[in-house]
Structure to design on (520 residues):
């Protein structure tokens, strides 16, 4: 029987830590990896609502938020989806549901779009249906949303056709951009195409990211691509503008740089400067080798020297979302899944200026797919904090039994200052890091550091306060340290345990406790 061990940090100082582990929603089904969609507050009850796509039944289920949140859907209908997004297309401020789909699984017919109005008009009957422009495209594939490319104050709908032009010998790809105000215009207002002269192919919408890089209120976007023979990969950046100019303002080719531009992904403003930022794969010697990702602060032109490194523990980020502000500190946070050995694991970083380099929570990391699904859901329980959605799923093209979990946002972790400042705020500069992994089986690594000579003890105790083992009881000079704790050596059963650290210098004593969850 699996149980969860939770890690809690309590510090005698001005900064307190929460664990983002309060489960408020669980649904067992066959979730599609990208099939959880935030719908905003559809019924005006103060709680955000969500959509979940079940790939085993090709079924869309809509759940209304609440405290507690109901696990019985308000609406259900069946459709073979390609992608699902939520965007207001009729000017009533409520998110509407846009689904690109095909009528029959595996068919080669043109993909189409169904639009379902939200709010009081929400039901299971599509309000708008349309397909690609006649004579130009072959199929609508994946959909995305631009926050506001042209500065009119409204979002735009973007749909990709990777097979454009279907009737030629080579497909270059196209992105159709549609105005949504005062109502959805099914004739594209602009397009972004692959380049037939230079044989450049634009990839599908999984390679699409967008945000306001220079803080001018207009949404910029980035699209990856390559030559039509898949050589010479690149990324193109397009600047938001009022005249719908869709020529890229810069193109980075992979073979021309020491960094890999095809790994650039625009993310929401992480450091509070009102400019969205760029997640990249780390390069050069800016950070330790196990920091596989880093962040460029937003700017146009881009400054490609990284501003903050992410301690991914030598596990590369595969995909990421901006889940909103999970801890009420006004900074956007980051939720990503990483390649954790063989399986994927979800990890959550909190934003800040600078942001902490180490994740604050870990979810999953199993071969069954727990940690592969991550999604933005908004504030589903109405407490004023965005919540965290993770789950067990499989990559597109397969369908397995899994689940969707939502954990409540947590104000107990506030990051008013950066990691280094936080370290200096602690008595005499001691710091106990989160053990990793946690939950664990059978071993986990405990890390700490000290800026002064101290006598340090680290013990493991059970929930009754009984000591299991003293791992460290000795004088330690200035430095960073780590030690492995192997539960098998002490014949421990699944359950909750605690790590307790005490470090005493001439002038100060530092105490910290972390909560562990052993799963067997």
């Amino acid at each position: 029987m699996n149980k969860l061990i939770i890690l809690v940090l309590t510090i005698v100082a001005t900064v307190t830590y929460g664990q983002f582990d309060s489960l408020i929603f669980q649904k067992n089904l066959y979730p599609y990896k990208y099939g959880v969609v935030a719908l905003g507050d559809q019924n005006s009850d103060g709680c955000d609502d969500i959509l979940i796509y079940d790939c085993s039944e090709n079924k869309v289920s809509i759940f209304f938020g609440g405290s507690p949140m109901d696990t019985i859907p308000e609406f259900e209908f069946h459709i073979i989806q390609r992608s699902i997004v939520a965007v207001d297309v009729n000017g009533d401020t409520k998110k509407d549901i846009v689904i690109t789909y095909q009528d029959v699984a595996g068919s080669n017919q043109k993909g189409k779009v169904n639009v379902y109005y939200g709010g009081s008009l929400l039901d299971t009957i599509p309000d708008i249906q349309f397909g690609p422009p006649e004579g130009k495209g072959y199929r609508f594939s994946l959909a995305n949303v631009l926050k506001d490319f042209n500065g009119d104050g409204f979002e735009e709908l973007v749909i990709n056709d990777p097979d454009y032009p279907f009737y030629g010998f080579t497909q270059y790809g196209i992105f159709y951009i549609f105005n949504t105000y005062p109502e959805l215009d099914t004739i594209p207002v602009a397009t972004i195409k692959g380049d037939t002269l230079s044989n450049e192919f634009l990839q599908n919408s999984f390679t699409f990211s967008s945000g306001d890089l220079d803080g001018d209120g207009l949404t910029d976007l980035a699209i990856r691509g390559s030559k039509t023979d898949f050589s010479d990969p690149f990324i193109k950046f397009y600047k938001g503008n009022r005249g719908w100019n869709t020529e890229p303002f810069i193109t980075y080719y992979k073979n021309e740089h020491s960094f890999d531009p095809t790994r650039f992904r625009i993310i929401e403003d992480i450091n509070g400067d009102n400019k969205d930022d760029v997640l990249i794969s780390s390069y050069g010697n800016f950070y330790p080798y196990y920091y596989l990702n880093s962040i460029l602060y937003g700017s146009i032109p881009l400054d490609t020297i990284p501003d903050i490194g992410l301690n991914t523990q030598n596990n590369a980020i595969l995909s990421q979302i901006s889940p909103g502000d999970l801890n009420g500190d006004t900074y956007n946070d980051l939720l990503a899944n990483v390649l954790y050995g063989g399986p994927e694991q979800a990890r959550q970083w909190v934003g800040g200026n600078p942001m902490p380099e180490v994740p604050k929570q870990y979810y999953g990391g199993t071969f069954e797919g727990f940690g592969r699904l991550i999604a933005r859901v908004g504030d589903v329980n109405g407490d004023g904090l965005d919540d965290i959605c993770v789950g067990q799923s499989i990559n597109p093209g397969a369908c397995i039994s899994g689940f969707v979990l939502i954990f409540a946002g947590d104000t107990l972790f506030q990051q008013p200052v950066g990691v280094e400042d936080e370290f200096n705020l602690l008595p005499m500069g001691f710091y106990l890091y989160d053990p990793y992994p946690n939950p664990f089986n059978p071993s986990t690594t405990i890390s700490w550091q000290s800026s002064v000579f101290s006598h340090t003890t680290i013990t493991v105790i059970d929930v009754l306060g009984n000591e299991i083992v003293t791992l460290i009881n000795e004088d330690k000079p200035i430095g960073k340290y780590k030690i492995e704790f192997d539960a098998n050596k002490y014949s421990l059963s699944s359950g909750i345990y605690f790590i307790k650290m005490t470090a005493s210098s001439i002038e100060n004593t530092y105490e910290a406790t972390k909560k562990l969850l052993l799963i067997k």
Notes: The two ends are 7 Å apart (CA to CA).
